[in-house]
Amino acid sequence: MKKQKKKKLKISRFEKVLYIVAIVLLLIAPISIVFTKSTLSEINFEVEKLKKEIASREKTNESLEMKINELASLDNIKDVIKKEGLTYNNDNIKNID
């Protein structure tokens, strides 16, 4: 009986490079996914922080607008005029928007 010869599989350079690239991609993919998710999480945290700051500033702006409207009211203007000893003449008043 003859013994069967085992044939060695020869792997070409292209196949070796292909296998190495595939292994490297399999190792790098999970790391890159974790990195991008952590970066996305940080960005979302910053966005929420900025949204809170914007809401706070909007509340401040609204309260300041209310104060401006209160100080610019006709009753307040008449009180200031009386305190300063001036007279109120509606024809001389000009509104600037």
Summarize it.
The chain is mainly alpha-helical.
**Shape descriptor:** rod-shaped
Give me the count of strands.
Answer: 0
Proportion of residues in β-strands:
under 5%
Gyration radius, in Å: 39 Å
Structural class of the secondary elements?
Answer: mainly alpha
Give the overall pLDDT as a whole number.
Answer: 89
- Helix tally equals 2
Q: What low-confidence regions span 5 or more consecutive residues with pLDDT below 50?
A: none
Domain count, please report it. Answer: 1
Report the sheet with the most strands, covering strand number, pairing sense and barrel closure.
none
- The SSE string, one letter per element, is HH
Tell me roughly what share of residues is in helical segments: over 70%
Give the N-terminus to C-terminus distance in angstroms.
Answer: 110 Å
How would you describe the overall organization of this protein?
This protein has one domain. The longest helix is centred in the middle third of the chain and has 59 residues, at 13-71. It is mostly helical and 97 residues long. The protein is rod-shaped. The protein is built from 2 helices and no strands. The N and C termini lie far apart (110 Å).
Note the topology.
Elements: H1 13-71, H2 74-84
Which descriptors would you attach to this protein?
mainly alpha, 97 residues, 2 helices
